[in-house]
Amino acid sequence: MSLQRAIDLIVALRRHPEGLTTAQLSEALGVCSRTVRRYLSAWQMAGWVEAELGECGVKIWRVV
User: Which domains are present in the chain?
Assistant: First the structure.
């Protein structure tokens, strides 16, 4: 994922994070859901995102 796509992901999360899934984010940004999950997982470990990581992807609760 390019830096611009990562920035787009952050902006999308800050606008309306609650209840978004990786599928919705990947479709909106035009990247694969695995890439979105990888970024969200790293951001969750850093404390930037509160999310539920599950079998069906990620459900975002809050962006810090």
Answer: 3-63 (1.10.10.10)
Q: Which residues, 6 or more positions from 26, have their beta carbon under 8 angstroms from its beta carbon? A: 32, 33, 35, 36
Distance between CA 47 and CA 4 in Å, rounded?
21
Write a three-state SS string for the chain. Answer: CCHHHHHHHHHHHHHCCCCCEHHHHHHHHCCCHHHHHHHHHHHHHHCCEEEEEECCEEEEEEEC
Q: Residue 5: what pLDDT?
A: 72
pLDDT one-digit tens code per residue, 16-60: 666 777 788 788 778 888 888 888 888 888 887 776 666 555 566
